[in-house]
Amino acid sequence: MSTVPLSVLDLAPIAEGSTARQALRNTLDLARRAEVWGYRRYWVAEHHFVAVASSSPAVLAGAIAAATSRIRVGVAAVQLGYTTAAAIAESFGTLEALHPGRIDLGIGRSGQRKAEAAAARAGDSPARRQPPVPRATRIVDGVVVPPPVPLDALFAAPRTAATFGVLQQAGAASPDFETQVDDILAFFRGEFRTREGVAFEATPATGEHPELWVFGSSAGPSAALAGRLGLPFGANYHVSPSSTLEAVAAYRDAFRPSAVLAEPYVVVSADVVVADSDDRARELASTYGHWAYSIRCGEGARPYPDPSRARALTAAEEAVVADRLVTQFVGTGPTVVERLEALRTATGADELVVTSMTHDHRDRLRSFELLARAWGL
Q1: How far is Cα 212 from Cα 146, in angstroms, rounded to an integer?
Q2: pLDDT in tens, 184-213
Q3: According to a count of CB atoms within 10 Å of the terminal CB, is the N or C end of the chain lower?
Q4: How many Å apart are CA 21 and CA 14, to the nearest integer?
Q5: pLDDT (mean) for 250-261
Q6: How far is CA 86 from the centre of its chain?
Q7: Enclosing H/E stretch for 329
């Protein structure tokens, strides 16, 4: 039994042969049950033009908060590159006013990073490129830390650049990440001023205080900013397992006490599939690599495949998602708890947040239920 809180990250996946409408119903069903099972938070992600139903995360978070009564609800994370500080403050100020003390606002650089990568490639040349530094898989306190997998195909895919263009107004340019975060905080304090000194009050954001989180996948700007501002930090082991330890260390090194936190607070994410037997769990998880590959190759997340119908991945395809496969926690409750405890120890996490992907909604419910029981919630 662990004393560390456990939370849910739901991508609202659309299963092969199902619909977005059903995926949203599944999310509300899981949220209600997660509250009963004792999970601390229920977070949804932001993804666009793919086979997940969380493209409007603030709206979805509001529906989840209305369908539950105690569990904290939020987004992990709003992609700042696709929106404005004012829009975020107004949306989450509204949620906090309607559900006081229960709303979490996670923010991340995802949209900005894609644009930065595209700009860098535009000015790049083969002669200036440096070869990747090879690195072997490490085991740190029982946690698998794989080498980074090149994401050139993802960032070079026409769909990736087109997505950013569709989600922004023509000619729009996002402010830098730190400026946007400062503006969001200023709106909630009622102290926002434009660069020209014009004051604006975002209603009903002013005076509302959703819990603000910064999410990051590396020892980069996000981790450093979260530390400097004294905000809680989310480290994405389920997305970028090769750099999670460095991200957490960078956050702690940069941390300064604030009115929000006296000490660093870290949540670390993980992908899990829990079943009544290890064999059954492996069967349910057998198409996770197919789903992850559809993202990594630049197509965008496909409907979550049915294990009974999917062909095996080729060796080349498996290599693209090797880091995701080796770091997915699959098995019975005790098996997965042992690995999660190792992750908690290695990162010093104050909380863990788990996502669980299966084709059948009933199997996903069972996964979260078994994990809650084994964790001692």
Answers
A1: 30
A2: 999 999 999 999 999 999 999 999 999 999
A3: N
A4: 9
A5: 97
A6: 22
A7: strand 329-331
